[in-house]
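Reminder to self: keep the SMILES exactly as supplied, no canonicalising. Ligand is adenosine-5'-triphosphate.
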Amino acid sequence: MSPLASELKACYGFVERNFNLVRRYLGWEIVFLVYNIVNALTIGFIGVTQGKEKVLYLVVGAMLWGFLSILFHEVSESVSWERWEGTIEYTFMAPVHRFTHLGGMCIYAIIYGIIRTVVLLLAVALFFNLSLQNANFPAALIILVVSSLSFIGLGLMAAILPLMSPEKGSQATHIFQAVLLLISGVYYEISVLPKWIRPLSAISPATYTLRAMRAALLEGKPLGQMKGTLLVLLVVGLMLIPLGLLVFHLAEIYAKRRGKLKRSG
Amino acid sequence: MTGEKTNLAVGASEPTAFLLLGVFKLREKKGMDLAIKCKGITKFFYETNSGGKSKGGFLPWSGRNSKLTAVDSLNLEVNRGEIFGIVGPNGSGKSTLVRLISTLLLPDRGQIEVFGLDVVKQKSQVRKLINRVSVDAAFFKKLSCWENLSYAARLYGVPIKEAKRRATEILQRFGFQEGKITQPMENLSRGMQQMVAIARAFFTSPVLLLLDEPTTGLDPKSKREVQEFILRVRESHDSTVLLTTHDMDEAEKICDRVAIIDRGRIVALDTPKNLKFMVKGESLEDVFMELTGKSWEED
Ligand SMILES: Nc1ncnc2c1ncn2[C@@H]1O[C@H](COP(=O)(O)OP(=O)(O)OP(=O)(O)O)[C@@H](O)[C@H]1O
Ligand SMILES: [Mg+2]
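Structure tokens returned for the bound complex:
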């Protein structure tokens, strides 16, 4: 087998393994999905009292945040999950390039995120009469793809935390995700945030994604008018992914020096 | 080394290219005949003595309370085709050594070669040659036995059909009930999990097998199956086996040579027979007791 073919097979192996895991933990998957749907619905209903526009505004926020946080979460938890299962050493000594390993995790995260979001979309469409006549769907799709890059990059960077510190790393990842939710204007304009926190919003890629997505779906803005935002997202994404891979590589070396790959401690 | 040099010198005095070539071939082969070569390996760990309270540890420089030498300037050569045993008290550094060879830890000092390949600099090539069975069967608990095995097959580039054939063959030999292969791993007993772990390591046909207490937790019959299997694999597959164990009879029965390791250092290394002769003991257990088991005060 050629080296590329075997790496591709291994990459598929990671995707397949993760979907097998989804199947085996189906009960929990349903719990998360139900929670997700209910969360989006409650937030949508808050908007109902404030007019149709507002419902769409909130629902778009909930769905986009849902998708991006799945990407981030699945990639960043890949290390701590395997540590919990006890397979971390097995996976790390396999004759597979780390790039292939992480690539497989990212591909899985994207497919899984899309499935979850589509289900969410169907549920939301059942409850609300969303008016999307104005929406610019091609633009929305491009925004989604471009912003996925930066969230995968962030996920890769966060994935190293559990490599450096088995327990606290995972905790730090959750806090980071929560802060992103606060600062990125998922359900409100960032202008309502206290002044001192706003500089943080400016460096969160989610802020730009949400702004662009709403412009595309609510106002039907053409891509041309969002060039600036898209460019920022693209540049950030293209920087974060290689940076994430590099940081991961360094963290792996550190983990092997300190004996942190072990199942516990 | 000096022997090789004189060889070469003799070859040079007879200026026939043919002879020189022969000598080089011999040297090359000699290099290849070493499955593992450890030169002055040292591995430190830093222990946090926080007494349960999670203090420090997140930042690299925090919580560096005490330094522990798990493997201490260790030299070791394992020949190709050998079944090499490592025995020693708990915490003597056996698993650490296995992890160092299997590219899961980086040595602080020294160099390790697997078939002439450096485990740090040429880790990707080394990984293709090795496989490891750890004490704790490392599986996705909810995935079935077969799902775990097919994940392994994908990682090691074994075609799925072939993997299934080989795995079933190995598991059948261990007396593994066929129906269990579709059961989640968590439903299998510890011994059964260990059998699957061994099958998983064997079906990738590694040339170097690192077995860290492979028979711990197995019943006497399964234990014997595994031991016989290890012997058979060596005969039929040109594999080298490095095995750690707490079972002295096992070491005596299947290992060509045994190293006794204590506090990260090799305290004795020879064939089981010679080791017994050395301490005038009846069994390898006597050797173990004689050479390890020093009390704290003597330190
Ligand atoms: N990842 C790690 N981090 C910190 N200390 C470690 C780590 N791995 C091993 N140690 C320490 O290094 C020493 C050697 O451990 P090791 O697991 O190699 O022993 P062992 O000979 O395999 O013992 P056992 O027979 O109980 O399996 C022990 O003191 C252990 O606490
Ligand atoms: Mg051990």
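Points to follow up:
The interface with chain A takes residues 45-46, 54, 57-58, 60, 96, 99, 102-106, 108, 124, 127-128, 130, 132, 134, 136, 138-143, 147, 150-157, 184 of chain B (CB under 8 Å).
The first strand of chain B starts at residue 34 and ends at 47.
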